[in-house]
Amino acid sequence: MARSAILNIMVQAAAKAGRSLTRDFGEVENLQVSRKGPADFVTSADQAAEKIILEELKYARPTYSFLMEEGGEIKGEDGQHRWIVDPLDGTTNFLHSIPLFAVAIALERNGEIIASVIYNPIMEELYTAQKGAGAWLNNRRLRVASRRKISDAVISTGIKTTGTKNDALTLKQLGIISPSCAGIRRTGSASTDLAWLAAGRIDGYWEANLGAWDVAPGYLLVKEAGGFVSDYSGKDRSISNGEVVAGNEIIQAKLLKSIKSAS
Question: CA-based Rg of the chain, rounded to a whole angstrom?
């Protein structure tokens, strides 16, 4: 596939950050046996990857704004464009040497996501999307799965362990959705969930309490792969309020109905 200049910039930044994370990932297993544990090391790996992305993108487009998981918001002179960055989506997986994590970058123009990259450096999977140009895994065009029955569908979600009100609601939703579908999966990375949905590996996904950096890159991938994304009320506000219900047109609608019934 031919990539635009802006997408090439994003891919280059994600690849460079991915190389840094890959080196650090090779050290995590050795740190598991230390008394202090690897948490501080992983935080440093996360910050190092974000610094790489910031430097690469700022060099290429010095006037653009940033919204980053670790570094927060940086206002640029350009009032139209904003990078949305998660340098390590799947931190707990990384911490436990589970190779399900990703570098995730989206570009927003006037409030609309126009390009995105999700890169798993361990699996060497590069997901890219640009508005109107489709979604891609490496050089393969993506399309969401076409299953129509929820009983045939594999659905992914995220369940935290903090015991918050939102967790209790998710468990209630799970009690409704799990018996009706073919299986539930939890990857531990929202970007991975949305990328896998775009690739047809899973059929649906729901989760709440997410950051814009968790949602924005995968949001465009799913849309460009022919999927549907909404918040829990059915509106197109997932990036702003952190609620995601996604799938093909039929599965997304059935998931949304189940989620509404649990509220």
Answer: 18
Alpha-carbon distance of 59 to 16, in angstroms, equals 14
Give pLDDT tens digits for 147-168: 999 999 999 998 765 666 667 7
Q: What is the pLDDT of residue 162?
A: 62
Q: What is the pTM of this model?
A: 0.93
CATH of the domain at 198: 3.40.190.80
Q: Around Cβ 12, how many Cβ atoms within 10 Å?
A: 14
Of 122, 141, 160, which marks where a domain is finished?
Answer: 141
Judgement on whether residues 13 and 114 belong to the same structural domain of the protein? yes
Residue 28, pLDDT score: 74
**Which residues lie below 8 Å from residue 178, measured CB to CB, with a gap of 6+?**
184
Classify each residue of 52-75 as buried b or exposed e, where b means 16 or more C-beta atoms within 10 Å of its C-beta: bbbebbbeebeebbbbbbbeeeee
Task: Please say whether the beta carbons of 213 and 68 come within 8 A.
Answer: yes
